[in-house]
Each structure stands twice: as structure tokens, then as C-alpha cells.
Amino acid sequence: MQNFRSMENNFLDKTIGIIESNISNEAFGVSELAQEIGMSRSNLLRKIKKLTNLSVSQFIRQLRLKRGKEILKESSLTVSEVSYQVGFGSTSYFIKCFHDFYGYPPGEMGKGNLGNDNSIQSRDSSQLHQLAAIMFTDIQGYTALMQQDEKKAIDLIHRHKEVLNSVTQKFDGKILKYYGDGALITFKSAIDAVRCGIELQLIFRADPKIPVRIGVHSGDIIFTEDDIIGDGVNVASRIESLSVAGSVFISEKVYDEVKNQSEIQSLSLGNYELKNVGKPIEVFAISNDGLIVPKRNQVSGKFKKEISADLKGLPQHGLWSRVKWGIVILIAVLIGYLISTVDVFKIPASKSFVHRISDKKSIAVLPFRNDSGDSTNVYLINGLMESILSNLQKIKGLRVISRTSVEKYRSNPKTIPEIAQELNVDYFIEGSGQKIGDQILLNIQLIDALADNHLWAEQYNKEVKDIFKLQQEVAKNIANKIEVIITPEEEERIDKVPTEDLIAYDHFLKGLDLFYKGNLDDFEKAISYYKMAIERDHEFARAHAGIAIAYYFLDLFQAEKKYTEQINFYADKALLLDSKLPQSLIAKALYFMSLGQNTLALPYLETALEYNPNSVLVINILSDYYANQVPDTEKYLKYAIKGIGLDVAANDSSTASFTYLHISNAFIQSGFISEALFYIDKSLAYNPENLFSEYVKAYILYARNGDLLQTKELLIDALQKDTTRLDILQEVGKMCYYLRDYESALSYYNRFIELRKAQNLDVFRFEHAKIAVVLTEMGLQEESELYFKDYKAVADKDNSIYRHLSLSMYYSYQGDTLNAIEHLRLFSQESNYHYWTVLFVEIDPLIDNMKNHPEFMKILNDIEANFWKKHERIKHSLKENGLL
What we know:
With 884 residues, the chain is α+β, with helices and mostly antiparallel strands. The protein contains 38 helices and 15 strands. The strands form two sheets. Strands 1, 2, 3, 4, 5, 6, 7, 8 and 9 form a nine-stranded mixed beta sheet that branches. Strands 10, 11, 12, 13, 14 and 15 form a six-stranded mixed beta sheet that branches. Strand 2 and strand 3 (182-187) form a beta hairpin. Helix 5 packs across helix 6 (91-102), helix 19 (502-515) packs antiparallel against helix 20 and helix 23 (582-594) runs antiparallel to helix 24 (598-611). The longest helix is centred in the C-terminal third of the chain and has 25 residues, at 856-880. The two termini are 60 Å apart.
């Protein structure tokens, strides 16, 4: 045995030496190590797994982390420099792995906040890894008792050891070490450990009573020549420190193993960030008769902080994206937008947060006041405001708040600083005007928003025939006063005269004023005025585009489209007359969208945005496109943030709630947890009854804390508010499935299936694989095969980036591991997958059969590493563009 141990140590020494000699080579991985050590990949994987209980990629990564820590401790190199020296191509990934492994970020190395090493094998000591259930016990208050009554304390120690020796043998436990008044014990199973803990406490509570605390965890321990160490030992110790005399505390890993044992009862005490433990851990108290179960406020010990209940629970799902609940959300947003206005994002946001969204100078043009005694001139004054606003929107270096965001302040008594806080702007334009005969009198003021100081004011007196010069002059003067550069191309677009016929322009302004009222009757009236404008000027491109856009909105919610040909005709005419007019390009894009050909609409939208960088309509269409039509998390987030920065005043709380939900979704899909939580809380603040937001928050919190049980409870709370919600029903079923509580999962899935059938809907078919697994586990094999068959048919036809992942899961469960691994490898080459993929794939029962394949962990690590690399790239891009 000793010779065998020596051979194993020599092998590990040789392996570690090879890895350390290649430590800075990011490309050095499993294949390269196998080649240098002279073994096949499969033999290497099996041997490393046997000796260390780690995959080869994990083994290499841990050595890199250990070396990284040594360099940080011994040198003044930055974290970024060290990450590359130890073979991490991404600094952010190095930081994440370091934190997960050591329990604190690498930046803390120089601050004295160092935790215990969770290090892997040392080259100078003999070590063996073992998975075990680990129990820690100690006598509460023993030190104080020693000072008061030494004899009594010694008697307690003797009885403590006597009871431990007799009871642990009964449950096949092994006392590895005594620590004064405490002990470290291992068991072959978590169930035996918990049963032993219950019996111990029942004995210790009998006379003579011993106030013992017990903590149990299941994990990895390392036997060295003179000690027992490892992350499993550390966690068990921390859990024991939380407990109270007479109690048995267990980790979530132990709970997963004992929860189906009818004779073991337990109660969750919440999530805790334990000292020197990387991730929050849910802690449970065994609640059998005779044991103490403390209240949460009685729990104290070696932890950093408790994670409150409302900050726990969460994920969404990797394959959930194909259901695309975002479509439902965006439709809801667009309904509000089309009924009341032509813009989507209308939400107040705090000054501090939105300034992170954009560092550009920002301005809002408040509704102009009509000083005429004649109310029929209102449309003309509104038209002046709209035209000046439109000219400012063409300047890329300026963030211009949309018309609909400022319209609510037309008769609002709020002060300028109050409005500035809501709209998050630096400057305001106030204006008033009147038409007297052929003269237009216009008063303009430029205001420093937060200070409420008037920076500049001017009165214009122009003839009606000079109305376009007036609009151009005002926009340029404003840009000059706030020191915003206008490029030659932008100036050319500002100077473009829409028509030489002032009567045609008058008709157009009347139509535009009606269009902005936003209901169907007004759309039809607007078209009439636009057509009158065209009768006067056949080459009035803006009027042609206006007709096409109004027809699109008239058709949007009709089951049978009536105006497709008209949209195309007027859009083509507008493009022919002015191919650089943003509204011409938008009109043609809307035509393709009316046909469902969104890909063809894309180049028109992108060009329109180039000519009008502040077009909220275009930005929101692009956000929807990259969220649902062609998923691209980077562009989705980019346009979503731009949208909220331009149109930040909500007309109603329901629209605001859905808009914040939309932004939250954009953030979480790219791994921005804190930002997602910020916006989902805003969504619920506007509408606490928004069940979309309620259950999405549960998933965001899961991304933060990884607490499936809490997620399930939060989803159940949402479901109880509307038991007819198919989406939430299947979400609860999914959580039970992930928890491997198949009996409960079947109950929820059955309700889901019955309700879906009653509503005659064909949705959530990608959930059929999970339903099939549940049916198999519950002995309903024939039904299971039907659901698997349907899932396979849907996956085969899937054209999204998730197709290979879906097929990988299917083949894995069918036992075709080679096919499963190959599809997983193909999926790992994709980009733009959502955060839910990273969070949920590894815990999905569908992939259990391929977990032992030597390539599995490498591919899974690649998927995660690629996601975080892209996350960092997105973060950099957003910051570079002033959006974060």
C-alpha cells in the first residue's frame, strides 16, 4: 500500500511539474498535458479524477490559481498582469475563478483580507482526496466553563467523547480528529451523518446535559500526512459555528440528499455568505422532535452576512429563451406605445444611475406655448417645436429627450429642477410663439436644468416664408451655446428644406399634430392632411413617409392587413424623393415588418439611426429585433439602454413597469445582475402586480444566489396571484424538476398541460423534454416517450443558436453520449447565448448521462468562459459608448 501511495505521489508530482512549466500558456490544456505525460486523454482523465476527484481542466485551473495567488502575494504586479502570467486569457474570468476558489477577489491579496487556502495538492506532502459527509461538533460555552469550574468542564469533555465514540460507530462514522471540546467526523453518506446528529443531540439533551452544536456538510476532504483539510471541512466548520446548543444544522447539499427521508424533518434558515466560502449557502435546521430550531435572528457565527429572503432565488433557463417571453413583454410595451404615442420608453430614472447610461450632453425641448389669441394656431407652434426638436435629434453628440417624454409637462406645475431630475437632462429649451398675419414671433430660452439658470434667450421675428430658416437657426444657436459639435453631414441634414410650398407644409403640420395624438381616428385624419400636402407638392418626401407610417399603425393590430400595398407604395415614393430622410427609411422598414420580414427591415433601420441618432422609434424596434428575431445580447442591451436614455417619462405606471422589465431582461441576459435587479425593482415599484416582473425577479435573484428552493417559493407566490398563468405554472414545474422533486414537478406539469389544452394553445414545447424526464421518473414510460418524440421534432426544426444544445440534452438522456457531447461541442462554438444557459445546463437532469464523459467539463467550462469573455467585451463597449 505504501509503494502504491508513493507511485501516486510521484505521478502527481510529475503532472504538477509539467503544468507549472506551462503555467503561462493559455492554450495548454487536457490534450497538451496528456501528450507531454505520455498518456491517452481518457486514461489521464480517469487517473486525475481518481486521485484528486477533479477533472483535468479543474486540476489545471486550480494550479493556475494557486500560482496566481503566490505571485500576487510576492510581487507588486497588477491582477491583470498576474492573470496572463498564469494562463488566463481574460482578467475577468481569472477574477471570477479566483473568487469562487478562495472566497475573496484577487485584489484583496494586498489588503490583508486573506482567507484560508482552499488549495489543491501540495507537491511536498502526501495527499488523497475523498468525498464524504463531514460533521463538526463542539460544546457551546466550554471556554467560559473551564474558567468557572474546571472539573465540570473536564467531565463534560469525557462524556462528549464517550457518546461520540459509541453513537458514531453505530452509523459507520469515523472520528478523524478531536479539537479540544470539538470533533471532526466523517460518514459514508449524508443520511447516516444526519441520523447520527439527531441521536447525538437527543442523548446530549438528557441529564447530564451537554450544550453541543452540530454542523453537517457533504463535500471534498483532503488527507495529508498530518492533517485533514479541504473546502468541505471549511464549510462544515462554518455551518457548525452558526448552530446553537441542541441543534443540527446542515448545508443545502446535505438537504438535497436527505429531503426525501420521511423520518428526517428540516426547516430552511435562509442563505448565508460564510467566511472564506465563495458562494452563498443555504442552511437548514433539522426540526425533528427534541431538537432545537432557532429563529433566524438567533443565528450567529462565522459568516459575512445573511442574504435576505427577498434577495434570494432566481434563474431563468437556458432553453427558456426559445419561448421568448420577451416577445410578450415587448408586445405589451408596444401596445401602450401605439395607443398613446409613437415612442416606447417612458420612464423616470434617477439622475445618478442614468448618467452611467450616457455621458453625452442632454437636452429636452419643453412644449412651446401658443401666445396667439387664435387657438387654431396651436398646430403651427407645435410644429415649430417638433421641427427644432427634430433638427437637434440629428446631432450625434447630443442626447435629445423624445417629444412624448416632455408632452406631460405642457400643463404641469413642476419646477425645472424637478423635471430635470425626472428626465435626467442637462439643459431645457422653453419656447413661446404666435402668428400675426404673415409674421411669426418666437421666444426661445436655454436653461441650465439643475441650477434653473437662464443661459441664453432670444426673440425671433420672421416671415412665415422663412419658417425653415428659423428652425435651422434656432437649432444651430442652441448647439453652439451648449458647445456641441455639428458635423458637416449633420448640418447638411439640418439645412434640408422639406418643401418649398408653405401651404403644403401647413397641411403636413396639421397632420403631424393629429398623428402624435396616437389613436386610430387621428391616424386616419393625419393621412388626409398628408395627402393634401402631397397634392400641393408631389415631391414632399416627408409627407409620403408620414402616410406609410400612419398606415402601418392602422394595420398593426388588425387580423387581416388592409394597407400593405399602400405602405409599400408611399415608402418607395418617399425613398425615391429623399433616400437620406430618416422617415423614408423607417417607412420602408415598417413595410417589411408588416410582412414579417424583419431581416430585410434591418438595413433600413440602421441607416435611419445613422441619420437620426436620437430616434426612439428606431432604437426600440432594433432592441426588439435583437432580443427576439436575431438574438444578439450585446446589441439588444445597447439599444435597450439607449432607448431608456432618450424616452424616460412614462405616461402610465403599467407602461413604465413593462419598460423597466424590458431593460432588466436586457441586462440579466448579458450577466449584469446588479443592474438587472435595479431595473426589476423599478418595474415592481411602478406596478407591484406585474407578474412578469415578479417571476423574472425570482430568476435574477437566482443568478445572484443560486437558491433553487427560494426560487421555487417565489414562483409559487406569483402563481397564487393568478393560477391561470401557463408561463408561471411551467416555471414552478421546472424548479421542482431542477430540484429533482419529480412528484411535485408532475403535479405542476399536469396542471400546465390541462390548462394549455383547455386554452387550445401550442406553447412551451421545448419544456417537453423536462416533462418527459418527470414522467419517466414517475413510471409513466409510454407518455414520456410521446413527449420526448415531440421535443426531438421541435429541436430538429429549430433554427436558433440553441438547436445543438437542445439535441445534446436529448441524446444525453437517451444514453447516446457521443452524439450528446458532439452537439454540446457544436453549441459551445455559438455566441450570444443568454446567461440562463450558463446557470442551468450543469444542473439539468437531462445531461446526467454525459457528466462522466471526459470532454464534458471542458466543454462546459468553455461555454462559461466564453460567456464571461463576452460579458467583459460588452461592458467595455457600453462604457466606451457612454452607456454604462
